[in-house]
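Quick question about two entries, pasted in order.
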Amino acid sequence: MPHSPDAPRTSLFRKYFLALFAAVALPLLIAGGSEAWFGYHDQRARLNDLLDAEARGAAAKIQDFMEGIRDQLGWMVQLPWSENTDERRRLDALRLLRQVPAVVSLRLIDAAGKERLFVSRIGLNRVESGEDHSANPAVAGARSGRVWFGPVTFYGGSEPFMTVSVAGNRSAVGVAVAEVNLKFIWDVISAIRVGRTGEAFVLDQPGRLVAHPDISLVLRADEAATQPLQALRAAILARPGQAITGQDTARNSVLAAMAPIPGVDWSVIVKQPVTEAFRRINAALWRTGVLLIAGTVLAAVLAYWLTQRMVGPIRLLEEGVAQIGAGQFDHRISLGTGDEFERLATRFNEMAAELAVSQERSERISRLRRFLAPQVAELVDRTGDDSVLDGRRVEVVVVFCDLRGFTAFSAQAEPETVMSVLGEYYGAIEAVVSVHGATLMGFSGDGAMVLVNAPVSCPDPALRAVSMASDMQMSVQKHLVGWRTRGHQLGFGVGLAMGPATVGRIGSEGRLDYAAIGNVTNLASRLCASARDSEILIDRAAARAVGSSVPLVELDPRSLKGFDQPVPVFAVVFGIGH
């Protein structure tokens, strides 16, 4: 089949390149990604703490602003009222207006709920007007809680105001009620900065904008414009204690945190643009990305270089193995890398040498099998000396065996049945011959010839031959039982003889055989033909050689074809009943 060596090399290069690249790049990407992930979360936690601290700081500043007004009002309710006009209180009230610009007007109420003094920046001052304010929520709230902060109101739908009232320690000193212009919180709010561009704003409990660095948003009192700020506060309330990402009035993405202002039920929210808040982490991510790209490129270059270093020796190994596989066992792979590739090349060279020896042995056996029985060929190869095949005169035991009734059986049975029976029969004979180390000269139809003591000599050849013949009978008889149940009337007989014979290679240049020539071969063949089913017949020479080692029964001498005188015959008793 045509084979292209380029395809596997390309596939191998790709596989090792990807493996090496992944081995370097993946840990780098995982480390960079995890560093970026944890860095982002650390930065987010720091921003959360920073904004929370800024929000609480802003809330404290606004609380200080409101408490400053409360304390100033507290000085106005230190002494009880008398029946006469108190000029000193009027001077103190005017002084408070000068000191606290956020207070627009101040009203002092006595213990009976009557107005005793009213001073204002925009209205007429009044003294001892006597108006009843006992039902005023500011007065009632101050008397119940000492300090009362009213709701935010917008005069003229523009400026935010709040009523603040403070009651004295004793009911006789009355209550001070002040109207506070919340525009002055702008000074506090505008001074708060988060980072470079972050800022703070204040919402009251209903969500109206009380203070913002852009005071125009407060003065417009536009609820639609403040909806993003209300949504931002709602998101923070949904996840308390965390900085939330949202949008401000300009629809810019911001990170915001909130803190409550005690007493007034307001919320101060600090916000910082997301781009500014995450500037550092974004810069770190960019640096990490650049490093990852550089590391990935370096990993690719390194993987390419290492893959080329690996593929080069592999190509040499591939080419060398291809030549060895093509039968060039004298080829040697030369690699001097000093690593596993060199050791692998050495193993291939050793394998090539062993294959050369194996090929030589296989060719020798093939040549021997052209003119020798397989057992003889294996024997010559195992001993490494084919001189045992030279012609010589030796004492051998020749064993012949064949099936009884086979001619009639083969004439009647189907060819497949005949071949099946012969296959089982040959297998049984070969197995027994192999166990006893004899030489199977070959099969002829249903007959077989076996040689003992040639080409390699063995001790007690007669005893070995008789033992082998007995095993043959026992093995074949077991098969005969099965064949007879199928209606095949067959039997098996064995004859063997011992005597001198000329053994060796015989034949022409194109066909050689190993053969045994002599009277002993004819005698063994005639004894086999004379044997009945389950009978083993041996000649006198074999009987004398085995002696009493094997139980024998001497039969009447038989006249055999080719022999002038009757031949003494002995039967082997091997335990199978007739």
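Here is the second entry:
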Amino acid sequence: MKKASDLFIECLEEEGVEYIFGVPGEENLDFLDSLSRSKKIKLILTRHEQGAGFMAATYGRHTGKTGVCLATLGPGATNFVTAAAYAQLGGMPMMMITGQKPIKKSKQGRFQILDVVAMMGPITKYTHQMASSDNIPSRVREAFRLAEEEKPGAVHIELPEDIADEHTESLPLKRSHSRRPTADVKSIREAVKALENAKAPVLVIGAGANRTMTSRMLLQFIEKTGIPFLTTQLGKGVIDERHPKFLGCAALSAGDFVHRAVEASDCIVNIGHDVIEKPPFFMQPGGPTVIHVSTKTAEVDPVYFPGIEVIGDIANAIWQMKEDIVPNGGWSFDHMLAYRKAEVEHTAPLAADTRFPIFPPHLVQQVRDAMPDDGIICLDNGVYKIWFARGYTAYRPNTVLLDNALATMGAGLPSAMMSAMVYPDRKVMAICGDGGFMMNSQEMETAVRLGLNLTVLILNDSSYGMIRWKQANMGFKDWGLTYGNPDFVKYAESYGAHGHRVESAAHLKELLAHTRDTPGVHLIDCPVDYSENDQILNIDIKKLSKEL
């Protein structure tokens, strides 16, 4: 007979788990004791459950394997809610394990007891309370299966104290090997026929294409056909954005140069699209032909109702289409590529503006120049996310980690920490607003304790800048969104990190190079000038692209 908590750890080892992130509580102590004897799994103690959840989700995003996090009952479990939603909407495989009071006999009344399983129901793919130690292997295996299959997401298991302390003869289950089905030949033929009959087709690369490693097949398809492509924010980097057929990233909702290019198309191929990200076009009856290529059928929405669906492994579907298609001599892409050229010409002088406080387009260019090809930037949430999505040229998949699904503040630092752990030889930078950084800034201690090498770039405007931008755009007075900040340099140093403050555009360039090349955790306090956000993003771009 084996103790249930020991069996649970063995099941996690069988699944290939490397880390468990979390803040344990009294109700997890059996589990913690069993984990202390594991030779394969390392506990990463964080300073808040949300940080643990964001790290677990980012592990899933990078590896495709389920990231695991641990919390106690009640307040520990409620602190997981945002991270669960982040993983669920963002398509990141993650398992949450939470403790609970004994379920067979109460000893403390209702103290700290919430119905955590019911709470997790709407924001996970699977949630289950362990009521018998004999079922641990099957429930753990099922949770991992569901977390990892398309579309990946969050799962939750509650392990009550008395179940963790039971003894059982059950044994871990082996992982099953499964392959995604390939797309039906007739659907491929229909999609190819629509492309061959089109005058100006375009490819839109979304989140699903970034998850399922489609880069090679997509590049071959683009090279053979010459069809231009754009990305959603979650599709950045699938194809190197220095490619001559790249049209841009749909960072704004409408009216950007890239949207005009899409409007010029009569056949749109959406690859790995998810309605979590609003499509970068508005469908209308009698509009362009829309082809949906994904592992799952399209969720119908007022803004998304494709006419042709190709369902199966995305890379294989693109390969089949490439083999079948005969490039059409009548295709014309010049007008689409002219929009991209105009966007580049509009951005160049902005990126060269060396004012201080730092101008966002210049900041984006400086960060791109400082980061190597395989460097990873992890964005928190704020108005700078739009500047980076539009202006930061992604060279490789999963090198721009931004969250355009839940779009939560507070995830930038934990996702960068996880990136630095998964890829210790690559350069990693968290890019946070002062608001988002302060939501999980305590994880700086975790980063220092783990000996990570990363840079945290804080864009400091002493306000919730994204909402301030929207407030200005809606014609409301500037009110209710400004605050004071700590001295970020001293704050970093108090954790044992290195603090730096930008004093000019030239100094920013020096600091980005210094922090990139110097080991340890660095924080850069960078004052930013957001005064022209509304003018450029909401007025100039729309006017210039419309004139074209």
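Reply: The mean pLDDT is 95. The longest helix spans residues 334-351. Hope that helps.
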